[in-house]
Structure formats: C-alpha cells, structure tokens
What does this fold into?
Amino acid sequence: MNDDGGPIFRQVADLIENAIVDGSLAEESQAPSSNELAAFHRINPATAAKGLNQLVADGVLYKRRGVGMFVATGAREQLLKRRRSEFADQYLRPLMAEAQKLGIPATEVTDMIDNWESPR
It folds into this structure.
C-alpha cells in the first residue's frame, strides 16, 4: 500500500475494484480473503476486512457464510458506470469549462481529442 493513496482500507477496496474492472477477478469468482490481503500487503487483517466490507456494502462483493466473499453479478458494470461518472466529473467538466472560457466550441474540442497523439 502507498502513503499517498488515502486510507489503507480504501486502497484495499480500490485494488479489488481494479481487478474486477480489468477482468482479472471475474463475477461470481471468490475474492481474496482479508487474511490473504493482509499477509500480501503487510497490513492489519482488520484493515483489509474493512476494505472488503466496504465493497459488500456497495454491492460489489457478497458473503457466502463459511466460504468467503465473491464478486457480485453485475459488479463490473456497476463499477464501470460509477467510474465513467467520476471521470466526467474529474476531467470532462473542467476541460469543457476551460474550453468555454477560451471560446473553443465542443466540436473543436472533439477534433482536438480525435487528433491527439499520446507522448511515447
């Protein structure tokens, strides 16, 4: 876990969410246990459990008594929908606000994006 990524339990939840989004943790597959996460990341098992329980509260994971936690059906789509909304709030709204200040129409911004080449 890193020092600048917010609370450790949130970082644990983010790791699991990222695995679901990128497909390495499929829907209906078993999520790592709090003890596995704690051992791997050298954190307190209660902290790892708090991250997992947050995902249960969010409907991303569900518990099977005596077996463990599993990725809920529809979790990937739920996460993608939330992240797209967060992406719009964090990046697109400020981008379009600045474009508006500069008098750049949305169509020109779209052209800029379409023709933009990422640095190599």
Q: What stands out?
A: Residues 8-75 form a domain with the Arc Repressor Mutant, subunit A fold (CATH 1.10.10.10). The mean pLDDT is 94. The first helix runs from residue 8 to 21.
